[in-house]
Amino acid sequence: MSENRINGETIGFDVYLSENILEREATGYSIVRGLLENVPKILGLKPIGGSMGIFTVPVNGTGLVGHTGMIGLLESHCCVHTWPEKRYIRIEVSSCKRIDVEDVKRAIEYLSVLFQPEAVVRVTNMLWQ
Question: How many domains does the chain have?
C-alpha cells in the first residue's frame, strides 16, 4: 500500500502589504497574473499552457474586488488569492514532488523585491504522503 503513496508538499506564501496596491481592479489582476506566471517557475515547477484562470470577486460593502487565480502545473497547481480590504495576498503551491529549500528562498526574495517595502512574507509548508 505505501508504495502507491505520493510524497509531495503544499507551500503557502503570505504577503502582508503596508500600502493597498490591490485597490485598483486592473492592478490586482495584473499582480495575480504575474505571480501565477513566475512563482511556480522560481520553484522549479512547470506550468501547463492554457490552464490559467483568474476570477474577480466583489468584496461585500467595500466597492473593492478581490481576485482568485489558478494555474495547473505538471506537478499539481498554484493558486493566488487577494484580499484588498485586508492588504493581503496568499499564494499556495501544491506539488507531488518535494520543492528545494533554495528555490523557496528564491521565491521569498522575489516576493520581497516585488512588494518591497510594502510586504512581509511568511511561509508555511505542509508535507503530505
Answer: 1
DSSP state of 87: T
**Could you tell me if residue 71 is inside a domain?**
yes
Contact residues for 15 (Cβ-Cβ < 8 A; gap 6+): 88, 89, 90, 91, 111, 115, 119, 120, 121
Q: Let me know if residue 105 belongs to a domain.
A: no
Range of the domain at 75: 8-96
Report helix angle 101-115 to 25-42, nearest 10: 160
Give burial (CB, 10 Å; 0-12/13-18/19+) of 78: buried
Tens of pLDDT, residue by residue over 76-85, are 999 999 999 9
**pTM, whole model, 2 decimals?**
0.89
Distance CA 66, CA 84 (A): 6
What CATH number is given to the structural domain containing 65? Answer: 3.60.90.10
Mean pLDDT over each residue of the chain, to the nearest integer: 89
Cβ atoms 118, 19 nearer than 8 A:
yes
